[in-house]
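Most newcomers find our protein records easier to grasp once they have seen one. A record pairs a protein's sequence with a compact description of its fold. An example says more than a description, so a record of this kind follows:
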Amino acid sequence: LASCQPAARPVNEMQGTVTMVTRLLPLVLLACSTPATSNTLGLADLTLELTRGQVLVLRHALAPGGGDPSDFDVDDCSTQRNLDSAGREQSVQIGSDLRFLGVNFSKVLSSPWCRCLETATLMDVGKVETVSFLGSFYQAPPIGFPKAATVQALRDYLGSNVDACAPPQLFVSHHVVVVELSGFAVDSGDGILYDPVTGTSHRVSTDRIDRTKQVPEQQAVLMPTGCPCPRLAAALYAIGGSVCTEAAGAAMKECPTSLHLRNAGIDAATAVQLACALAEEVPALQSFSVSYNNISDAGAVALVNAMPPTVTEIGMVGCGISDTGGQALAAWARTDAAKQLSMLCVEENMFSASVQQSLTALGGSSRGSGFAELSTLVVSPQDEPPPGYEPVAPSSLLDLLHTECNVAEPAIGGCG
């Protein structure tokens, strides 16, 4: 998660258990970025399946023949095997379908071979950059690139230049590169969805989509031009359920200053996705609640470290947080990122008496000069919601205080 933290609030500002918990996050990222189990994905699937931190690797579009002529020059298209008219039409169609589906790429990288560059350019889904590690090694040098060096450079890039919180990248390359990464043979214009964290792949077919058959959930993820918080809205729609769907609709209109996602079906993996979107797009959040979601330690740490310095209230009641997460929360609350924090509700988690004491010690003005006074409410460990409890997303700070913190009267100025 460090890659999606704002510079002003890095995870490593916290000591001890925070460092330990952040080591758990790659496991969460594995869970939320591993491709689906279907044999072959279509482009229509990518609106939901193609998530941050993954790479769509496509073989160039139709180019009749095989290999390249003996007089091949990588800088001279006239000496190469190139796209024919069908390949150019295929490239345009693939790009058009991806744009229709709302799939955005953080980078578009291409092999220096002209058939790859033309495919990427005609797709028109972003500025195209040429990189040698996507070049072909189908033929030996001097026509092809050296295989060992090319593959090593590709793997080095995937290991250090794919941000788990960034939109996916698009690679346009050659059949041999796709096979090297996945073991899959693919047709011209098709490819794989590759996860650099797990090293797993799924075939992707780029056959033309039927635009009349897109389901509402897929269409909902397509953010209209000018949507102020598109990634937050997409993350919320992907979680689904009435609470997150309503919040996603609101995020399409304006970035929230208050976001209450109580009992919304959020787990550790989706909490990390949500944290990435919050860190990137929501700089003025003040009130945030994910109470009664089983986000566990990793989800709790991810979310609090995505909070902007404007945050004043956080609710994480009944979230399956243990001592590891509790100690991390206590440490974060003493950083500059939490100076405005005036309410932290963490009842009904799995804290020992010592961790409860650490959290309670944050109360009042104990955090020192420059910090807001903090009301921290901690109750007995492993509590369950009361009998007959009906979860309702709180619509105001007063509701939050009453339903999550069991406070009869507002305890913070301006809550009335």
